[in-house]
């Protein structure tokens, strides 16, 4: 599969649709999820065209990877969950039920989270 520049996060990056921005650096943008699953639910996306975590790991430069991971940390710090804890989730592919085909990490926290995986459905 090749990267689809019409995916919704690509449109957010181009400023074609708005987002509730939380943090930004040279290599990453973070914004609140439109359907939050917890008091803190932020999506962190790289600025480059990467469709999945594997695509990002294989093709991104060391600077992009470092900038992205520093953005994840900055979001946790800004959201005030460094001490209370949080969860990072990166869905990929069919089984992982990735809906938006631009790599992203969900940072979720602000309450005691449930089991890592819900019962199978
Ligand atoms: P995933 O299943 O990991 O691909 O998750 C995609 C996430 O993107 C979901 O949690 C959606 O609620 C979220 N989402 C979709 N469109 C938007 C948007 N325009 N702004 C913010 N979050 C969005």
Structural description of this entry:
This protein is of the alpha+beta class. It has 4 helices and 5 strands. The chain has helices spanning 8-13, 53-59, 62-79, 93-96; strands spanning 21-24, 28-32, 40-46, 86-89, 105-109. Strands 1-2-3-5-4 form a 5-stranded antiparallel β-sheet, with helices on one face. A hairpin with a 3-residue loop joins strand 1 and strand 2. The protein is globular, with a radius of gyration of 14 Å. The two termini are 26 Å apart. The mean pLDDT is 97. The structure holds adenosine monophosphate.
Count of helical regions = 4
The H-and-E topology, N to C, reads as: HEEEHHEHE
Rg value: 14 Å
How many strand elements? 5
Major sheet details: 5 strands, antiparallel
Query: Globular, elongated, flat, extended or rod-shaped: what is the shape?
Result: globular
Q: State which percent range the strand residues make up.
A: 15-25%
Bound molecules: adenosine monophosphate
Q: Extract low-pLDDT stretches.
A: none
Strand order of the largest sheet: 1-2-3-5-4
Helix content: 25-40%
Mean pLDDT across residues = 97
Terminal Cα separation, in Å?
Answer: 26 Å
Question: Which structural class fits the helix and strand makeup?
Answer: alpha+beta
